[in-house]
Each structure stands twice: as structure tokens, then as C-alpha cells.
Amino acid sequence: MTTPTLTSVPPAKQVTPAGLVHELIAHQWSPYGFAERPVQNSDLDSLFEAARWAASSYKDQTWTYFVASQTAPEEFEQLLSCLVPANQQWAKAAPVLVLSIVSLRLSKINQDNRAAVHDLGQASANLALEATSRGLSVHQVMGIFPDRARKLYQIPEHFEAWTAMALGYQESAERRPEALRPRDRVPRTRQPTRAFAFRGPRGNPSAAQSNRV
User: What sign for the dihedral angle of Cα 16, 17, 23, 29?
Assistant: First the structure.
């Protein structure tokens, strides 16, 4: 068995975390350009297996994914049509599209599930990290047409189309469409941990290293 290759990171997207974190986190980023290279079914199976083992309130696994590959053009175009036009422009080049659905009810006790979207996010984060470990990239978006998705995929009551993702191998910088190149040159930035992690009242950093940028 060959060792998977991490997703490569162009200079503009390279980061140096302020603390020790796993290299998968530093390597994960969301490209706009995707190469014309298919994703193997075995890799897709592993990505959704990773999502399967995310934490889940009441073990309800509130996430559902609809998957469409360019190898099935009609299915791909159907899922692509659920994205807003601005996202369709670049996502149409991805070999795989995924529509993420969330159940807002706990099936076992038939109550509202306040953790539903949180759990979907954890499952998708697992999926994205597994993709990074295999040299794949995932670009997640909120810009979708939920009502269109409900009609096309017959999504039942208490379920909502929430996000979508484009999945594949990133295109080399020189081969990306000219209009997309500036987007992939924007440096990755994040707020320092002192801006969101606190001990006690807001404003008290949770740890000494939180003062790093």
C-alpha cells in the first residue's frame, strides 16, 4: 500500500500555526481551480467513512450527502444547478460535487436537534481532513438554492439542504483559469486565538500562547 500524499500548498496558502498542530490542518485549504483528474471510488469511500465516525448527538448522524461525479454528466449537472451562479462558474470544473443535508430532528426521540448543524460540520470536517491526507482538496460553500435542492432530491420535512462542496485535485497555478488565479493567491489568514478563546469573562485569554498572531 502506498503512502498517501498530502495536498500540496502553494506559497500564498502556506501558514505557520502559532502552536503545534497536525500537519493536515496546516495543509488544508480551499482552491477554486480543479484539475481534470477523476477521484477514485475507493478514495470517496474513505472520505465518507471518515464522516461516518464524526461525533454525533444521540448517535443520530444527522448528515446526509448526495454525491455527483462528472463521470455521470446528468447527475453532475443536476447537483451543479443547486449552486448559485457565482459558485457554478468554478465548481463546474471539479470532478465531484457533494450536497450536504442536515436533519433538524432527532429520529430516536422525535425532538428538535440543536446540535444538528454542529454535527454536520463535524462530519464534513472529518471528510475534508481525510481528503487532505489523500492529496485531495475540498471547497465548501453556503451559496446554494435550498428550495431547488429539496425539489430535485425529494428532501423530506425536517431535513434541509445546508451546504455543498467541490472535491478533487487542485489545478496547478499556471493552468487555472485566468479569472480564478487571483482568488487562489489571496493569503490564508485567521484571527489569533486570543480573539475567540477565553478563560472566564470575555477578554481573558485562555492560554499564554493565545497572544500569538
Answer: negative
The rounded Cα 64 to chain-centroid distance in angstroms is 14
Contact 47, 124 (CB under 8 A): no
Residue from 120, 127, 173 nearest 28 by CA: 127
Task: Give the SS3 label for residue 101.
Answer: strand
Terminal Cα distance for the chain, rounded? 39
How far is the C-alpha of 86 from the C-alpha of 139, rounded, in Å? 14
Q: How many residues does the chain have?
A: 213
Distance CA 158, CA 145 (A): 17
Give me the half-sphere count of Cα atoms (radius 13 Å) on the Cβ side of residue 197.
11
pLDDT along the chain (213 residues), means of 10: 59 66 82 94 98 94 97 98 97 97 91 95 97 96 98 97 97 74 77 84 63 45
C-alpha cell at 50: 471518515
Q: CB under 8 Å to 127, separation ≥6 — which residues?
A: 47, 48, 50, 51, 138
Q: Considering the entire predicted model, what is its pTM?
A: 0.86
Picking from 129, 155, 104, 154, the residue whose alpha carbon sits closest to that of residue 28 is 129
Contact between residue 173 and residue 10 where contact means Cβ atoms under 8 Å apart: yes
Cα-to-chain-centroid distance, residue 136: 11
What does R_g of the chain's alpha carbons equal in angstroms? Answer: 18
Distances (CA, A) of 110 to 57, 103, 156, 158: 13, 11, 15, 10
